[in-house]
Design a protein that fits this description.
With 172 residues, the protein is an alpha+beta fold. The chain has three helices and ten strands.
């Protein structure tokens, strides 16, 4: 049986979790926050059936259902050629190969994104606020942004490899 004290403590804890993104992490909102030029990108709006037809099972789970692929499973972890990393759902360029770095986390990591090509929101799934990012064209889930990356940004865009496709420079 739940006591009044337990209920009040739980309610206080829940309230604190909602306040933490603003007070500690400086997150100002939990809606999708468009980048500087994302308004110029034509949106791709497909039905769930159309996405299932277009994507593999794994791509669909990550891009449309915000799943996370198994670490160290992506061949893009070891990609070292010059080119562009684009959204696997709609081909929008997200990262230049020059911004990729070896993070040791098991997922392709980048220290910068192509301006305006991703949108962000707060993710509270693990009860600790994280910044999640999506493709600005199709809304496909890519990964999370952490503040432990290299210079010059200090950021790590930790991306699901299955959510990306690599386009070598000679094809880009």
């Amino acid at each position: 049986m739940i006591t009044r004290r337990t209920f009040l403590l739980a309610a206080a804890g829940a309230t604190a979790l909602i306040a933490i993104p603003v007070a500690v992490w400086g997150v100002k909102n939990s809606h999708i926050d468009a980048g500087p030029t994302s308004g110029d990108i034509e949106k791709l709006d497909l039905s769930e059936a159309q996405w299932k037809e277009r994507l593999t099972f794994e791509e669909f789970n990550v891009l449309r259902k915000e799943a996370t692929e198994k670490p160290f499973s992506s061949p893009l972890n070891d990609e070292k050629l010059k080119g562009i990393f684009a959204c696997a759902g709609c081909d929008l360029s997200l990262f230049k190969s020059e911004t990729k770095f070896k993070s040791g986390t098991g997922w392709p990591s980048f220290y910068n994104v192509i301006d305006g090509h991703v949108e962000t929101k707060v993710d509270l799934v693990l009860l600790v606020p994280r910044t999640e990012y999506h493709c600005a064209r199709c809304g496909g889930h890519q990964g999370h942004i952490f503040k432990d990356g290299p210079h010059p940004t200090g950021l790590r865009y930790c991306n699901n490899g299955v959510a990306l496709k690599f386009i070598p420079v000679e094809l880009a």
